[in-house]
Each structure stands twice: as structure tokens, then as C-alpha cells.
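When time allows, look over one protein, given below as sequence and C-alpha cells. The question is which stretches look regular and which look disordered:
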Amino acid sequence: MRLRKKPWIEKAMDAVRGKTLLDQDLDKMQGHWQELFPGKRLCLEIGCGKGKFVIGMAKLHPECAFVAVESQHDIAFYPARAALEDELNNVRVIHADAAGLLEWFAPGEIKEIYLNFSDPWPKARHAKRRLTYRKFLEIYRQLLGKGGRLRFKTDNKDLFEFSLEEFAEVGVKIVQLTRDLHNSTVVNEVQTEYEEKFSAKGNKIYFVEVEF
């Protein structure tokens, strides 16, 4: 669904661009994120939406730096504004397509990746677009290096089972797994907007953490 253009968005984006929002010369950041976040463990969320998760995590973990990628122009503004208003110096929002990840980060530069309620692409012919498809997992392997971790949450059972098959295919180690996150002992520090919405409807939340 195409979002209706907000007439005020361009001016609003200008107010956060270069501060908490990055959308230009991203390739120049490759290998240099520690200069922006000295000594902080670099974490990446792909598809952050309006940013409830990444902002919450940044507040809980000031020892980490969080980079969130959001491709939708009118949506990327919100987490960038929240980070600026809350004076969070450990958050940056990238407004761009995640296809450029290998151009923005050096191998092993990322330590943790979060995939929260990614598009399930339910039709079989679209399987290769799912963010847990093996092609993407190999990209994550390069970004994370040995020992890096990926955490994946979804309310879509079919996508979850598909993802487990893909994890097995590329040979990653499952660290934690639950098919009912909210009724498990797995620590769930911050819920996303979708998570709150879906769990309120009684949907089970599926979670897995893997190590590369």
C-alpha cells in the first residue's frame, strides 16, 4: 500500500538529516562506524518502522550503538526525530534500501542484527524476498563475522518455519527458540509496534536467536 505523501515531510527530514538521519554518502561510513560510536557494540535493525524497538533498546543499552534501516521515506523520519528529541547519541537511522548493507558496513563491523516482523512475502514465488532467505543470511554472515548474532521475531508461523529451514541450510547455531515468546522465559526487553498490536489480538509471537 502506497502511503499518502505528507506535505510537511521534506522540511521535517531536513531538520534531522545529518544528525540522527543518514541518507547520503553511506558508503563512506563503511569501516568507520566506531569513529561515530567509540567503543560501542554496533547493532543493526533492518526495517525499524516508527522506531519503538530501536529507541527502546538504545535507552536500555547505552553501551551499544544502534543503526536502524528504514526504506520508507515518510516512516524513517519518526525514529530519527525520536532519537534527536531524546538526545540519544547511540542511534542513527538510515533511510535507504537494505540492499546496500555490504556497501555501508565492513565485514564483521556489526555484532548483532534484529529482524522484527519482516514482510512475510507469503506467496511461494516471492520466497527469495524474505529477509531470512539464505541469500540474505549469507550477507548477514559477512556483516557479523564469526560469533555474531541474529534475533528474529514474527507472528507469522509459516515465515518462522521457513526461516528455521533456511538457518539449517546455511549452518547457523540456534541459541534460543520459542514459538510463544510472551509465555516463555526468553528475555524480551522491548516490544515493537506490531508486536503489541498482534499480541493484543491473541497472536503468538515466534522468536529465534542464532549465532553465525
Remarks:
- The first strand starts at residue 21 and ends at 22.
- The chain has a mean pLDDT of 95.
